[in-house]
Every structure is written in structure tokens, then in C-alpha cells.
Amino acid sequence: MVSVRMEESKVWKTCIGMMVNLIEEAAFKFTPDGIKMKAMDPSHIALVDFELPATAFVEYKVKQPTVLGINLLEMYKIMSRGKAEDELTLELDEERNRMGLTFKGASTRRLSLPLIDIREAELPEPKLQFTATAEVLAGVIQDGLKDAEIVGDNVRFELSNDGLLISAESDKGTAELKLGKGDKALAKLNVKQLARAMFNIKYLSDMTKAASSSDIITINLGMELPIQLDFPVADGKGRLRFLLAPRIEAE
Amino acid sequence: MGVQLGDIVTKQKVELEQLRGRVIAIDAMNSLYQFLSIIRQRDGELLRDSKGRITSHLSGLFYRTANFVEAGVRPVYVFDGEPPRLKQRTVEQRRAVRAEAAEEWAKALKEGRVEEARKFAQRAGRVNEQMIRQAQTLLGHMGLPWVQAPGEGEAQAAHLIQRGDAWAAASQDFDSLLFGAPMLVRNLAITGRRKLPGKDVYIMVSPEVIELKVVLEELGVTQEQLVDIGILIGTDYNEGVKGIGPKKALELVKKQGSIKEIVRTELEEKFEVDPLEVREIFLKPNVTAEYEVKWGESDPEGIKRFLCDVHDFSESRVQTGIDRLTKGREKRGQPSLEKWFG
Lengths: 251, 342
Prior knowledge:
Chain A is built from four helices and 18 strands. Chain A has helices spanning 9-19, 72-81, 138-151, 201-208; strands spanning 2-6, 25-31, 34-40, 46-53, 59-62, 66-71, 87-93, 98-104, 108-114, 132-137, 154-160, 163-170, 173-180, 186-191, 195-200, 216-221, 227-233, 238-244. In chain A, the strands form three sheets. Chain A has a nine-stranded antiparallel sheet. In chain A, strands 5-1-7-8-9 form a five-stranded antiparallel sheet, with helices on one face. In chain A, a hairpin with a 2-residue loop joins β2 and β3. In chain A, α1 runs antiparallel to α2 and α3 (138-151) runs antiparallel to α4. Chain A starts with a strand and ends in a 7-residue tail after the last strand. Chain B is 46% helix and 10% strand. In chain B, the strands form two sheets. Chain B has a seven-stranded mixed sheet with strand order 1-9-6-5-2-3-4, sandwiched between helices. In chain B, strands 7-8 form a two-stranded antiparallel sheet. In chain B, α1 (28-38) crosses α2, α2 packs parallel to α5 and α9 (223-233) crosses α12 (275-283). The model of chain B has no long low-confidence stretch (mean pLDDT 85). The chains are: A alpha+beta, B alpha/beta. Chain A binds chain B through residues 40-47, 119, 123-128, 153, 200, 225-226, 243, 245-251, and chain B through 12, 14, 17-22, 209, 214, 217-218, 295, 329-342.
């Protein structure tokens, strides 16, 4: 049996909203400990790694590990119908092979969607030796990306002892965002070695645009390595992690 | 035609953009035939230059390739070499179909049946040696690599992927999967808004990705068994068994284990060539490790000389294509995450 209830539907909505631009279909694994989902986008440039422990729920009933295949776009449509403060229950309707979503607020509304047949992807753990990490306000990243979008398709992230630098350059002009030590939006900075890499803006904005601008994102970066972005979910009980492959200068 | 596996394999639609940075080994003959078939005037007549030489294949190769190169795809065209002995009959059959279509086409034109004329014309197209050489010359000017296969192009394309020199094979046929290509992309050259044949209806075509590992897992068969399924349905090298389609073939192979067992049953006399010989073509393909895959700069002057001066292409349209090639070059540098998987 699978039946889990969370206090505010917006938690789930935000998570789905952040995944839906990257992956169409997802296999959520419900275990007695919590919910997990890991998937790559079809072009294998980005990876989504989601974890929400049972403790993030007010009620959590999962007897045995169950994988539920979900069309994220359809689920997002349903989530968009819920009010942020509604209580949300996710339930497996085994008989009809559906997932039920119940919003409890001013009224009780129940929607459901068919489960899809999907393999649970076995993804290896990437081996990455990040050399710098920072905790940054999501709103700042969102701003940096929007600026860079005006200039081109790619954006450079750099973490040094000076702080975070988000920059873009093309024949259309330049864009630069600096976040230094002492700036409130930079909650934490730890640089063992200068880290710098370039990324596709579209992917990064797909990952970050649904985040609340007041979320603190943890960035992990290395020299020409993928970037790892961790978003706290349900007050940090869970997390949504993205990994994005860098762009390599054309040979 | 290739093996008809379409009904039993899972295809995933992707956007062209999602193939960015990917090296894709393209079945050159398959593409050229496709261009000859679809790039036509309304009455079915091929595009020609002022000297009457066919240019449909060049138009297709240039503009369609520029399209996906712009999106950041890194194509490497693979040309067929010597076909396996068993393909001879298929080759002759195709030749006969084309000859017949050419006659029907002429007849339809004479009688003013324009739509039908177009249909027959599409079947009549034939890629000759000269067209292949022209295609290779054009690719050279475009700064794109091509590889000469010793045998079947699809086999060589699969080999490129297995050696890590390409990410996927591109072809409309499913044979690449039988040759062991881990990844197959379909619809690459026809992505975009396309007219349905014989109708005034347009549809959006997007690329499809088929992953061999997923196909094998979902069907619950091995690579050898997939080849056996192909042999039962029919390939370019054998007719297949009458009355056996993909689903029946899958069932049979799973029940019997392999074609070796199947030939011991009453089905044996239904094969007119030795299925084990066909099996060898796929499982021990004639391929080479002697090739080079390298992307260069495109040569705008060379392209214009070849397409505009020699073959009367419109200079402004060709310039647009050249711009796309340049744009694509900037986009290529997007590796996939697998690069960092341990």
C-alpha cells in the first residue's frame, strides 16, 4: 500500500515543477523510508536526483518498496490545480493502476492520473571531485541567468576566494553578476581551488526557475566539471539535486 | 526497406536540441535515397541544374544536414561498401521496383495524373556512383567527416559507436539495432514541418531515439535473439517466413531459444536462404577500424563554387545554410554526463 500525506501541496508542486522541464516521465520509488527518484533528461546532459524522507510527511504509509511511473507533465497539471496551503495526499489505486491526488483545503478535491509503465533507471553515481562549494540565494542565480540569457546561450560559473561570478559573453554583449564575501545572498563559501565551467543557460533556467527566490541553493563546482545544484525540499528534510554537464570549448 | 521492427520497439521522441553535442553516424545511402524520394517538384520531377543534372540529393544533403548541424549535432556520414552476397536479390528487386515505377511515372505524367505521377516518381529514384562522389565532395566542403564502410554502412556505424567514436546511428531502418548499434536515431533528416505524401496535410516530425539495451530488456531477449527475430520477419538478406510478423517472431524465438532450434522445426523448409548465414552478417559484420572522424571548418567559397556555380543553387539560400553550419560549430561542445560516470 502507498498512501502519503503532506501538510502543504506546494512542496510537491515545486518539486514536480522543477523536474517537468527536464524529464517527461519519472519512476518514483516509494519505500518505507521515503520517496526517491533519479533520472536523466533524454539527451543525458542533466540528471535529476530527488529524495524526500518519510519524516517530511504528516502521514506516511508505505509497506514495501513500490515504483510508480508518472507522466510529469500530467502530474504538474494536476498540481497546478491545488492551492499552496492545501493538504495533499498521494495514494496508489492498485486496482485501477492510478495515482490519486487529494487536495484538502476549503473543500476536498480528488484527481487521479494513470500510472505508466516505466523502467526504474539504474544510474551509476558520477565520480566528481568538486573543488568549491557555495550556498547562494536562488533569486540571485535566477537573476544571473536572466541577464546572461540576453547575451547568449551559455553562461560561465566561477567560484573563487572572491566569491561567485556568473558571466556571459558573445558578440551581442556581456553580462556579469558578482557575489562577494559579505554579500547577504552568499550564505557560505568554501573554495579549495578555483572552479570554473560553462553551461547551457536553458538547462540551468529550467532547473532553477520554479524555485522560490528565497531558497538557498548549494552549488558544487570544479574545473570543467558538471555543476551540482542542491535545492532544499520541505525545510531541508529532503533535497532535489541537479547535475548538469558543462560545455566544452569547441575544438 | 530493412527489417520491420517498428511495432515491437520502444521509441522515445526527442527534440533536435537534445541531440546537441552528439556524434551521430548517419547511414549515407539511406539519407540519399530519402532525399531523392522526398525532394521533388510537384509533378514528381527531381530537382535539376541548368544542364539537366539531378540535384535533389545535394539539396537534401546540404540543407537538411545544415539543419541539424545548427542544432549542435555532429554528423559523420557512413557510406556503404560491398554488400554481402545475400543482398544481391534485394538489390535486384529494388532495381525492378524502381524501373517499374519509372514507367508508371512517365505514363501518369503523359495522362496528366499529377499526384500519382509524384507517387511513382518517388519510388523511381536511384542513387548512382556519381551522386555518391558528389555527396562526398560536398561533405568535404562542409567540413564534415565521412567514413567508407567495407561492407554495410549500418554495420560500420554500429562499429563506430561501439568504439566510442559516435553516440548513435541514424537511419530510418531498424537494421542498425541488429548490427548491435547501442543507440538509433530516426527522423533526423526529416525533422520539422513535413508534408504527408499524397495529401495537402502537414505534420511535425521530431527525432526518435531507440536504445538497444531498452529494446532487449523490454522484449526479454538477447542480441542474438533480436537478430533471429529479424531473420524470421525478413531482412535485406532473406525473405523472412511468410505469415510471421514481429510479434509472432518474438514469441517463437522466446519459445524455441534461437533460430538454430527453429530451423529444426517444421519451419525449416520455409527459409529459402540459410538463416545461419544471415545471422553471421549481423553478428560478425564486415567492419573496419581504419577510419578517421574529424570535424573541420566549413569552406564557404568551396560550397558556393560547387552548389551555386556548378549546380545553379540560389546563392542567398546557400548562404543561409552556410550560416547554420557556422552556428552549429559553436554549439557542438556539449558532452553528456556519461563522461563523468565511473
